[in-house]
Design brief:
By secondary structure, this protein is α/β, with parallel strands linked by helices. Helices cover 40% and strands 14% of the residues. Helix 2 (7-24) crosses helix 3 (36-49).
Length: 144
């Protein structure tokens, strides 16, 4: 499908946008991704391009104490980006008040379900219009 083809092209713009927001407003951020694989691709690129920005990552199968330790790193004085999976342990029900969390990045491939209609649409992914629609979309200043 066309969305998976855009994955390598999406990594640099995502990293740049995250680093730009972090530079403009240092603090604690959570970055959410649609899978551990996508998280790892972006995390590797982000760490390589921006080694001065502290990163922490969610890992699959974290114990309760590991999850608590992950969240404990987000203090009023820390500045970092936590990489997490959408729908994972940190996707909802966490409370990081005040400066413990100043923003979030939500990135997903937005892959549609495999259906006959979607398969027909995917054939059209080679034209310029659909190609331009596969780039990441951002909503600046989205706040809770």
């Amino acid at each position: 499908m066309c969305s998976t083809q855009s994955l390598p092209r999406s990594i640099d713009p995502i990293c740049q946008r995250m680093a730009q927001h972090f530079s403009n407003r240092p603090g604690n951020y959570l970055a959410f991704f649609s899978s551990y694989a996508y998280l790892q691709h972006v995390l590797d690129a982000f760490r390589q391009r921006y080694p001065h920005i502290v990163t922490v990552e969610q890992s699959a199968g974290m114990s309760e104490s590991e999850r608590a330790g992950f969240l404990a790193r987000f203090t009023e004085q820390s500045n970092q980006v936590g990489f997490c999976v959408l729908g994972g342990a940190f996707g909802e029900g966490i409370d990081l008040p005040g400066e413990r969390l100043v923003g979030a990045f939500i990135t997903t491939l937005g892959l549609p379900a495999k259906t006959p209609v979607n398969e027909e649409i995917s054939v059209e992914c080679n034209n310029d219009l659909v190609e331009s629609m596969t780039m990441p979309i951002s909503i600046p200043d989205c706040r809770k």
